[in-house]
Amino acid sequence: MRLLPWEYGVRNLARSPVRLSLSLAGAALVVLLVLAAGAFVRGMDQSLRESGNPNNVILLGAGSEESFERSEIAPSVTGLVQAAVPGIKSRLGVPYVSPEVHMQSVIREARDATRGMPVLVRGVTPAAFLVHPQARLIDGRVAEPGRDEVIVGTQAPTTMSLPSQRLNVGQTLYFDDRVWTIVGRFEAPGTVMEAEIWTPLSDLQIAARRDNLSCVVLTLDQTGDFDDVDAFARQRLDLELVALRETAYYANLRAFYRPIQAMVWVTAILIASGGLLGGLNTMYAAFASRVRELGSLQAIGYPRHAIVLSLVQESLLASVAGALIGAAIGVFLLDGVAVRFSMGVFGLVVDSIVLATALGAGVVLGLIGGLPPAWRCLKLPIAEALKST
Amino acid sequence: MTLMKKMLLSLAVAVASVGVVVGCDTDQPATTASPAQPTAESAAALPSTLFLKKAPEGAVEVAAAKKSVKPGDDVVVRGRVAGSVDPLAPNRAILTLLDNGVPTCEKSPMDKCPTPWDACCESRETLQASTATIQIVDSGGKPIKTTLRGLNGIEPMKEVTVVGKVRDAGGANTLVIDATGVYVKSS
User: Fold this and answer.
1) Residues A217 and A285 in one domain
2) What is the pLDDT confidence band of residue A13, given thresholds at 50, 70 and 90?
3) Is the Cβ–Cβ distance between A149 and A181 less than 8 Å?
4) Domain limits for position A200
5) If DSSP codes are grouped into helix, strand and coil, which group holds residue B7?
6) In angstroms, rounded to a whole number, what is the distance separating the alpha carbons of residues A240 and A71?
């Protein structure tokens, strides 16, 4: 099959530097948009997936399976489950059982501050660091009961729209009618816990005037069986409990956010379609001005499919070059950027899958942007093409 | 490499990328899992005399039993498999029994309950007073590791009559019965 030289397509791109720049910019923007949408969806998904430990089981109030904050269970559950369920992990005699209170509180910088942001405050005991090994203290110390102390996650400033230094050790916050001192900071990479504020369980119960718990989280060892915890909840109907694997809880949350993720994709596709139509228009104009040239090529013996391939090659080169520029910008500017949502904060994730999707979109843009205009320009008989201006 | 081959290679990479993306992320939310069914081996662990051919005499409703029995008593209790969103444990021989006198609200036009058998319209106090836990235990006193769903027709909303002994499960308002006989009323 006789084909046009590769260099012919490359040189044609340089004919109109302005048109080439616009094509590159358009492709880069479309790819950047697809990258941003993909990074958003992957980041949210990953944050909710990594927040769940596969060996953890949560006991929470029946009917509150979709939200810890609505759950209320008796404080006695902590001791009862340890006595009734075998296979709970322990270290040096300390069981991996964490009673917790989860509360959304409006946190202000000071008592007289007018602006506040809702942040999840978690009341915990030291066992929380056993059942949530993703959480690690990186600065200061653990908060002690009875002293109105808190520790903050490294993403808590983003949740509160404050600079990071404002939540350093030694600073204070105001919520639930009292001033709290930050005595430590913790990280929990890739999880929603990183956007939380943790305080001693008893202090939060006193501040919130409640004596019940939101949940009890326990870790099973190799001999432990989730169905034993489930059986405990079914036997003690008076406690109104339900047992959930922690991974199942966050899987339900991921399903809850699917419509939002779908909307993000639909928006990206709609805007990218606008970019595609603009690119089609540009290509139509570019090829239409070369009808006589294309007729000449046919006249000297190049078949139509060879010319179509060359035109698509031009379109692909421009769009893939733009896609690479857009992808490079996306990797440097978007990866790791914190985004606030109702569960806390997650970071945009630009990984290989997101990159492949975005670059694939660039390739599709080049293909779709080049084929219809090329085909249309070659529809004319050779004689008429040679006569056109 | 010829132009045609370059084009085909580029196209193949693009299609493969789309395939990777489409093929990934097969997460399914836990709530869409289908109910567990007993296997032949797990069901064989149940006593062969467990399922009764006719209803035992002298059965009382769950609410009445809760008021009068104490741990160690032999009882015959009648009720429906209901009282929670999932009254049949997926991997243990445990079911929740609801007093027949407690209405389930699926017939009400205002019903917003997740399932017809969870009786979510009833108050906590009514449900506390009208539900019991029925379990089939092994020689060690632990619930046998099989679901009761589907065995001898046991499904949510089925009326069952249970013969067994009241177990001391702790809690002032609990009724846990270690069943030795179960009769499932055919509808």
Assistant:
1) no
2) confident
3) yes
4) 63-239
5) helix
6) 10
Please judge whether B4 and A309 are an interchain contact, meaning their C-beta atoms are less than 8 angstroms apart. yes
Q: Tell me: the pLDDT tens digits for B77-103?
A: 999 999 999 999 999 999 999 999 998
CATH classification number, B41-105+116-184, choose in 3.30.1330.60, 3.40.50.280, 2.40.110.10, 2.40.50.200: 2.40.50.200
The 10s digit of each residue's pLDDT in B126-156 is 999 999 999 999 999 999 999 999 999 999 9
Same domain, residue pair A69 and A26: no
Whether complex ipTM tops 0.90: no
Looking at the complex, report in whole angstroms how far the Cα of residue A358 sits from the nearest Cα belonging to chain B: 9
List CB contacts (< 8 A) between A310 and chain B: 3
Q: Within a domain: residue A244?
A: no
Q: What per-residue confidence (pLDDT) applies to B27?
A: 43
Please provide the distance, in angstroms rounded to a whole number, between the alpha carbons at the two ends of chain B.
74
User: What average pLDDT score do residues B154-165 get?
Assistant: 96
Q: Which of residues 195-214 of A touch B (CB under 8 A)?
A: none
* Cross-chain CB nearest to A313 (options B3, B94, B172): B3
Residue A251 forms part of a structural domain: no
Alpha carbon separation from A173 to A155, A177, A199, A204 (Å, rounded): 15, 11, 12, 14
> Within this chain, do residues A116 and A23 fall inside the same structural domain, yes or no?
no
Asked if residue A268 and residue A229 are part of one domain, the reply reads no
- Hey, which residues 298-317 in chain A have their CB within 8 Å of chain B? 309-310, 312-313, 316
A187 shares a domain with A94:
yes
Best mutation target, A237, A308, A354, to test chain B (most B CBs within 10 A): A237
With an 8 Å Cβ cutoff, are B3 and A6 in contact?
yes
What is the DSSP code string of A258-298? Answer: HHHHHHHHHHHHHHHHHHHHHHHHHHHHHHHTTHHHHHHHH
**CA–CA separation, A107 and B58 (whole Å):** 61
Which residue, of A190, A210, A239, is where some domain finishes?
A239
pLDDT at B26: 41
